[in-house]
């Protein structure tokens, strides 16, 4: 494996598949020290020569090497040798484990709207790209269903170490996927226009709001009758209650505005996914305080919606004051190339610290898990990446990856 997770020319498919006996690092509960690293805390400061102490899967101490306590346990120490240490990278919009050589489970087309489907039931953790992603430092991903359905289903936020998805889950459901624009148009029985797609979404959200009101009323008053169970409306109940965010797949500026309009009508907690033309209305998005998960950056203009795609999108949105995350949209750009996507954003005008934030702390904030991950801070999950050089230099190699304090075998 070369820098940033590119497979070497000689790699075989078999070599990239996890060994059945693979271990995910040190014994649980064992203390770990990372020494002599340039530590990018993603909390507004970088420690030029620092250490990190980990215990029971959590970060316990972060400081300068000259502050290392006397008698510190160094038996399980990793010497970063002047390399750079980042929080585990987060890709919060991808389809990892849903498509590839084993087939495709992206879109459930048996009905128009499928809010009750759960990505948790479709992810294959044995997908070779899961292993390659974690080896490249991607420690947490949000896997979404595809964008054929106006209401597509429930995303899952998961770590990338493990073989049983249930044991990898951070949050499920992590978001409800909605789709606007070209993708949900035109199938038999599907809406034929953008207007039709928006109308279908509104109708379902209105029914879900009524269902939620009846459910909440019955919860508060035993004399009230619970609504008849409806799996689709029940899946949307936490969305209209503001407990699960809505993620809107959109590219064009007019579709972005439609997503904002619908979200405001129903009081949703929401984020824009892709937002390809977001830079054209960046001030509007900043004013509305809408987070944007941009990407894929490394792709072509494969459809009309991408006509005005630019590699400067993330930079222009950030400069306008929008909270930006960068995603791969795997397999559009493969998940192991997440760090390369951030580097390309920096090359096209994004400040380096902002580019790193877009795949760490900003991603964690948008996913609602910044209390657990996204920065190198005492008490957070010990998801850490060590590189032998500056993180946005394409020549830098990932040398160590830790998930919950346990080193991933490479």
The fraction of residues assigned to DSSP E strands is 15-25%
Query: Count the strands?
Result: 16
- The stretches of 5 or more residues where confidence is low (pLDDT under 50) are 6-23
* Known CATH architecture of the largest domain: Alpha-Beta Barrel
CATH topology group of the largest domain: TIM Barrel
CATH superfamily of the largest domain: Metal-dependent hydrolases
Largest sheet: 8 strands, mixed
Mean pLDDT: 92
What count of domains describes the coordinates?
A: 2
Structural Rg: 22 Å
CATH class of the largest domain: Alpha Beta
Give the distance, in angstroms, between the N- and C-terminal Cα atoms: 9 Å
The level of helicity is: 10-25%
Structural class of the secondary structure composition?
alpha/beta
Inertia-based shape? globular
Number of helices: 10
* Topology order in helix (H) and strand (E) letters: EEEEEEHEEHEHHEHEHEHEHHHEEE
How would you characterize this protein structure?
The structure is a single chain. The protein is of the alpha/beta class and 410 residues long. The chain folds into two domains: 1-86 and 375-410, Urease, subunit C, domain 1 (Roll), CATH 2.30.40; 89-373, TIM Barrel (Alpha-Beta Barrel), CATH 3.20.20. The protein is 25% helix and 23% strand. Helix 3 (194-220) crosses helix 4 and helix 3 (194-220) runs parallel beside helix 5 (253-266). The longest helix is centred in the middle third of the chain and has 27 residues, at 194-220. Mean pLDDT is 92; it is low at 6-23.
